[in-house]
């Protein structure tokens, strides 16, 4: 990760999303069984690892690529008295040494259209390396998204900006000081 980018911003936005976080908590509570070994990739704030520990996991390996978030995770684990249960592994889940086989993989590397966070390559790597086996359970167990062709005005502040744009609902409120993106639908939405 870059030393100049605020890596914790998005992780804490996700944490504050009660609908998302509660849905993950419920899925983890249904999936993790007592004494399971759990691997969370892209641990971020660690909340999903904490849920896995609360569900009865014997061991939770929380993998995080960002050094700053790892140091925050270490503090979180200590603050919750989970030193012997949750172990922080710093690095890229595709490259670092991981346990031989786990009961549950939690992989919330989900970004718009699976473009920026490597959910699919990470899961493929876990399978290829034998970390995830035919009996491993996954949270989430599926991913569904909507796709729609759009035209978007690339001009912002008098300049053309060619970069991925995430149109979160809170960004669509110009009365709150956000620049509204002009767009035109070019197709119907399709679920994939």
Topology:
Elements: H1 8-16, H2 18-31, E1 37-41, H3 47-54, E2 59-64, H4 67-79, E3 86-90, E4 104-107, H5 119-128, E5 137-139, E6 146-147, E7 150-152, E8 155-156, E9 159-160, E10 183-185, E11 190-191
Parallel strand pairs: 1-2, 1-4, 2-3, 4-5
Antiparallel strand pairs: 6-11, 7-10, 8-9
Can you describe what's shown?
- The structure is a single chain.
- By secondary structure, the protein is an alpha/beta fold.
- It folds into 2 domains: 8-139, Vaccinia Virus protein VP39 (Rossmann fold, 3-Layer(aba) Sandwich); 146-191, no CATH class.
- The chain has 5 helices and 11 strands.
- It has helices at 8-16, 18-31, 47-54, 67-79, 119-128; strands spanning 37-41, 59-64, 86-90, 104-107, 137-139, 146-147, 150-152, 155-156, 159-160, 183-185, 190-191.
- A 5-stranded parallel β-sheet has the order 3-2-1-4-5, sandwiched between helices. Strands 6-11 form a two-stranded antiparallel ribbon. The chain has a two-stranded antiparallel sheet with strand order 7-10.
- The longest helix is centred in the first third of the chain and has 14 residues, at 18-31.
- The two termini are 31 Å apart.
- The model is unreliable at 1-5 (pLDDT under 50).
